[in-house]
Amino acid sequence: MNFLCTNMNRMSPNSERDIAFHLNPRFDQKVVVLNTFRNGNWDKEERPPSMVFDVDVTFAITIDCQHDCYKVSEPMNLPTSLVFQF
Question: Which CATH architecture has domain 2-85?
Answer without folding.
Answer: Sandwich (2.60)
